[in-house]
Amino acid sequence: MSIMPRDSEAVKYQRAMAKGSDFQPEFLVATATTPDEARTLAEQLRALDTVARVDSVSDLIPDRQAEKMERLGKLSAILGGISLPPQADPVASEGWITAFEAVMEWLEDGQDKAFTVGHKDVVGRLETLYGRFEKLVSRIQGDPAAVQRLNDLQNAWFKVAHDWSQRMDAWWQLSPVVATSLPEGLMERFRGEDGALAVYMFPKDSIYDMDFLDRFLSQVYPLAPEAIGFPSTHQVFSRMVLEGFKRASALAVLAVLLLLFIEFRSVKWTLIAFLPLLFGGAWMFGILRLMGQSLNYTNVIALPLVIGMAVDYGVYLAHRLMEHRSDDPWSTIRRFGGPVALAALTTLAGISALVMGIHQGVATLGEALVIGIVSCLLAAVLVLPCLLGFAGVKTGDRLVAPRGDNPKDAGVAA
Amino acid sequence: LCEVGWVARVSAFLLVLTLASSAAAAPAVRFLISGNAGMGTKEEAEPFVQRFAGFVAGKLKWSADHYEVRYATTMAETRKELETWKPGFAALSLDLWLQLKKVAPMTPLLQAQVNGKATTRYRLVVKKADGVTLESLKGSVLNVVGMEDPQFLQRVVFRNRISLPADMKIQATPRPLRALRAIAQGKGGAILLDDAQFDSLKELPFFTDLLVVYESPELPLLGLACVPANVPDGSHQAFADAMVSMCKEPEGKGICEMANIESFVPASMALLDEVAGWYDGK
Question: What is the DSSP letter of A22?
């Protein structure tokens, strides 16, 4: 994600999705042979603290079906015989009054019990209810339209109850849900051509955080050793790329040191020529860390490039220092540092355009290169003379002039 | 001789076996709950009774065969159980204790606390009208909830201000609200209510139509008594402690709330003896 184009809609929404839901665009898939196996695996995966969500065919199959079917059977024995008509016979006002008075009697009985032991809240609430029924009874007595409305209400209730009784009739015919009975559209996502059942697992954090990715996979693999998906390939390939470039950088350093030794035929002058790269490289890593940048697919390329480009500053200045070794290193740098800086600046002019790139990968490559070159330049023109002055290198009698040592031959690589 | 020795040994073994089995089947602790104050029928009170007994037994780590609990709905049933079943503990009201303490000598252990006090005051409630007094009610009906002992009502509640049943006709009512509605409509005599019932009355719309014509002295709310003759030494305190803890612990609190009891406190023997003196006419 850190190398994708800045402000792109896709990146923005991918981040929002990762932040606001259990879903991630990158997930792992494991397989199971039976729904029970898929359920067990899904439950184990859900218990992991690096897993945000697990999708399995077992989620579509209700659990404890045998127990539920048994309960349904018992319920069917009680409710199965109930058959309600869609409409009730109209009730006359006397019938309603008798029914409501029975309810009032029942309320009063409960109220009396609450009153006797002093549950005043219950007494108060039942009194309110009792009062409403009292009003209802007096209304029925004096208003025939009220009786009609009650009969209409009763019919509406009967209709609902009738619908429910019919719906319940369908319940009694239910059979257990099995994978084969699920609609094909649902099963497409979970069943492979060989009949294997997929279990999808979504990471809780970004898999581009390598520490998290390592933890995620180290938790998942013991449960699902054959889990596959982008996170697992990303872990392998990103490591491969980064390790490859790091190894290439190490080899480049060795090659540079060898070439420097061949050129200078002296360990001391080899090290002097290498010092700016050593210091500049260390500063580059430090500054990148302070900027919160880590090495990624693209900016890791900067490592061998910086080695190749920035070693030139040390080579050029080492030659000049060797030619004028009787002089103070600072005076040599003052005379010859300008062309070196110019060479570095022309290089920077070329690569700084990368920093402006919308593609974050290219931009981070540009940033790493700029930081690396500027660091190596500063190390060459500031640190090198300081260290040489401090160590008294200008009086070094054992120095051997390199072959063909001619200031005119020593070009400044740009 | 040899045969006699064998018979003697078998007899001795059987005797030991009998004694051991009778010891193992030690009489269960019997606990009587009197619902005279209005816990409803046996069936209605059953959940409460079982939860109550279960809590106390659990607290005392009694197995199910170590205790028995019975529920009596009336004074007559309570008397019969005390005489024949001989419970060790009884949860009963003050009037029943006074009435039956001669049937089975009982020692009050705990009083129930309601609304912060372990006593209650009885109020005689009538239809609001000018000039109505306790004396003017002579000849009318006295509705009571549970307690119908004229001696208790006359000597303890009314402190001999009226003579019962001569002055008023005592009528025990299981439907106090029906009686109250009738009184409020001017169709009934009077009704005697305790503090908790009087508090509940304030929730009803006809409260303002009623008048209190008499208030009794503060009388103890008896919670638990034991019959020392039927209780193994020392166990009465453990039983009382279990009941006291009931209203304090989460699993027992609901049981107390069902009976509208805040807590149980040790019985005040001074007050109970004074009231017993009134009852006995001393």
Answer: S
DSSP bridge partners of B127: B210
What residues contact A35, with CB distance under 8 A and at least 6 apart? A57, A58, A61, A178, A179, A197
Mutant choice from A104, A106, A112 vs B, greatest count of B C-beta within 10 A: A112
What is the rounded distance in angstroms from the CA atom of residue A224 to the CA atom of residue A235? 16
Distance from CA of A108 to the nearest CA of B (A): 8
CB-closest option in A108, A117, A127 to B196: A117
Adjacency order of strands within the sheet including A197-203? A51-56, A197-203, A28-32, A228-229
**How far apart are alpha carbons A361 and A296 in whole angstroms?**
8
Mean pLDDT across A83-104: 91
Q: Do B202 and A131 touch (CB under 8 A)?
A: no
Report chain A residues whose CB lies below 8 A from the CB of B260: 117-119
Which residue in the set B178, B200, B205 is minimally distant from A118, CB to CB? Answer: B200
Compute the distance between CA of residue A74 and CA of residue A72 in angstroms, rounded to an integer.
5
Rounded Cα gap, residues B33 and B27, in angstroms: 18
**ipTM of the prediction:** 0.84
B203/A127 touch (CB, cutoff 8 Å), yes or no:
yes
Chain-wide mean pLDDT for chain A?
A: 84
Q: pTM above the 0.95 mark? A: no
Q: Residues with Cβ < 8 Å from B252, sequence gap 6 or more?
A: B55, B245, B246
> Tell me, what DSSP letter sits at residue A83?
-
Two tokens at B114? 């309601």
Q: Which residues of B115-127 are buried (b: 16+ CB within 10 A; e: fewer)?
A: eeebbbebbbbbb
Residue B167 has φ and ψ, to the nearest 5°, of -80, -35
Distances (CA, A) of B178 to A51, A116, B1, B138, B174: 65, 12, 82, 22, 9
> Which tokens hold the place of A398?
């054992």
Q: What is the mean pLDDT of each run of 10 residues along chain B (282 residues)?
A: 55 54 59 75 85 89 87 90 92 93 91 94 94 91 90 95 93 90 91 94 93 96 91 83 91 88 94 95 84
State the number of CA atoms in the 13 A half-sphere of A24 facing the CB. Answer: 23
DSSP B229-267: GGS-TTHHHHHHHHHHHHTTSHHHHHHHHHTT--EEEE-
**In 3-state terms, what secondary structure has residue A290?**
helix
| Token digits of residue A124 | 């108060």
Are B183 and B210 within 8 A, CB to CB?
Answer: yes
Q: Taking residues A192-205, what's their average pLDDT?
A: 90
Instruction: With CA atoms as reference, report the closest residue to A168 among A84, A88, A86, A87.
Output: A84
Taking the C-alpha atoms of residue A59 and residue A41, their distance in angstroms, rounded to an integer, is 12
Cα maximum dimension of chain A: 130
Judge whether A127 is closer than 8 Å to chain B, CB to CB.
yes
Tell me how close the Cα of B263 comes to any Cα of chain A, in angstroms.
Answer: 14
Two structure tokens written together for B247: 């209203």
Q: Which residues contact A106 (CB under 8 A, 6 or more apart)?
A: none
- For residue A157, report the phi and psi dihedrals to the nearest 5 degrees: -65, -45
Is the model's pLDDT at A22 over the cut of 50?
yes
